Amino acid sequence: MSEVITSIGEILIDFLPIVENGATVGFRMHVGGSPYNVAMGVARLGQPVAFAGKIATDFFGRFMRDHVEREGIDTRFLVNADALTTLAFVAYEHGEPAYSFYGEGAADTLVKPEDLPEALFDDTRILHFGSISLLRGSTPAAVEYAARRLKGQALLSFDPNLRPGLVRDEAAYRALLERLFRQADLVKISSADLAWLMPGVPLPEAAAALRAYGPALVVVTRGGEGALALRAGDNQAYTTPGVPVDVIDTIGAGDSFNGGLLAALYERGATSRPALEALSGAQVVECLRFAATVAAITCSRAGADPPTRAEVQV
Question: Nearest to residue 54, comparing CAs of 145, 96, 117?
């Protein structure tokens, strides 16, 4: 595969709750991790995608690699590591998912710049990054290195996908986020994450403040209310409404939105900053609507289970 969308970061095992009579009675194993979910979403939508990271050689790691291959994701940039797999247990509190992570020293935290092959920099047309891969081990430095190397060469897509409960050094983390906001061409962020970054700041002002860091496009997802986008050099707000569905759960909704947005941009040739800037406002709204539909379908079924292209009628 050449000219791929590459998603870099964590791949892990999500243990999703089995609920009986309102109580969690067990857990079911699923392959997860935000950047991996994005790659899976892109693959199911029929666009060429690779996943870059480190994967354990334990039982869980073998289970994950088999899943990656079955999804048709390019594994050239996926490196084995003699380490354990990150495990994430998901339960529900007050209707919202609550996460517990077990992954100190796990494989996905051990990516180093030298683990990234030259083919990644030759073949990547869109690089997507973010989430808990920015919080642990050497992986944050590797992600930042990849973004620097590809700046101006590929479209850089960043979703912080915050987990405040995992942040140990908030000042250092905020400094890293700021550097990545300045590197990124496309920033997708949820309204909840934006509120954590800029507490008390109204959403339109906070989105404009993110745009001031330099991205060509800032997209704020608002759950059932849809999404809002701001472009560089343009005072217009572009919006798409939420897509009504019977919600089973919201796990993976943001990742599915990312996958849908990146697939839609790739289909339109928007694989560089100039190409993204050249899209018309109508094309931006089309991409947002497609991404919102992908996310809605994911919410209509359990777990991070993004739809295929045939399931998305837009």
Answer: 117
